[in-house]
Amino acid sequence: MSDFDNPYAPSQGGQMSGTVTFGDKPKPAAGAGAGQGELISDTTTAGFAEDVIKASQAVTILVDFWAPWCEPCKTLTPIIEKVVRESNGRVKLVKLNIEDHPAIPGQMGIQSIPSVVAFAGGKPVDGFMGALPESQIRDFIEKVAGPAADTSAEEQIALVLTQSREALAAGDVEKAAQGFGAILQMDQGHAGAAAGMAGCMLAAGELDRAEQLLSVITEEDRKDLEVASVVKRLEMAREVASLGDPVELEARLAADPADHAARLQFAKILNARGEREAAADELFTIMRKDRAWEDEGARKALLEFFEAWGPMDPATLSARRKLSSLLFS
Prior knowledge:
Helix 4 packs across helix 5, helix 9 crosses helix 13 and helix 12 runs antiparallel to helix 13. The protein has a 5-stranded mixed sheet with strand order 1-3-2-4-5, with helices on both faces. The protein folds into 3 domains: about 110 residues, Glutaredoxin; about 80 residues, Tetratricopeptide repeat domain (Serine Threonine Protein Phosphatase 5, Tetratricopeptide repeat, Alpha Horseshoe), CATH 1.25.40.10; about 80 residues, Serine Threonine Protein Phosphatase 5, Tetratricopeptide repeat, CATH 1.25.40. Strand 4 and strand 5 form a beta hairpin. By secondary structure, the chain is of the alpha/beta class. Helix content is about 55%, strand content about 10%.
């Protein structure tokens, strides 16, 4: 993923850090306007449970992770606030300044800003990164909050896109490809559908065809989390071919459990096989023994896994909880 010239981390792949600030629950965001306090507000580390976790039991909450020095954040703010106001209460926006309150984004593995995560039923359900255009933010809200009563062609495409992605995640490549193909017939330049079809090609082992599909996607569209996930999975699939024989790596580990280089390669092979939890466990083994090894190479590899799996994948959510426990224990 791109950091969008984000200087927050002291080094590439670095974990967010800082002093946790506690305080009173903040007032509605400045500029929200009369009557908009319930739709757009700020929160703190102390208020996050009430403002986001509890509130999302009743309505979908979009959490905007931002910082005052972040130029893309300044671009996103008026756009997302406008779309949220026009959503007629289907979603609410809660903003968290990561500079003042780094604990929550640190625990969630937020590496770049702006990042927006949708919460529903007390849990994160989806998200995106970067200053997306208004149309894509509308699509995102339709996806997480459900379409309005009168659905347009654009909204129908968004629904088919979601269904196709769910089919691909469930292993139904044929159904997914049919949906992505239908969207591409209507809109040949649809980045999400092109990335989805590339994901189908990856599942079929057609790496060159996947690369062709991804090659036409613009850099701006590659900031979308779903698109970025497919791009990262292709990179990893290309890398796995050079990692060596897994049987040989297992033999190296049996002879020397402290051979972290072999364990890292083995984790990547497990990930390529689809054994996500096992792959993450191998990286946690390295971190528990030597967290600083190769400039935190195991943690950085895990974050790359998160990017490839997507923020809401069960393996991502499980590994993020373990990572938070390890880093903040």
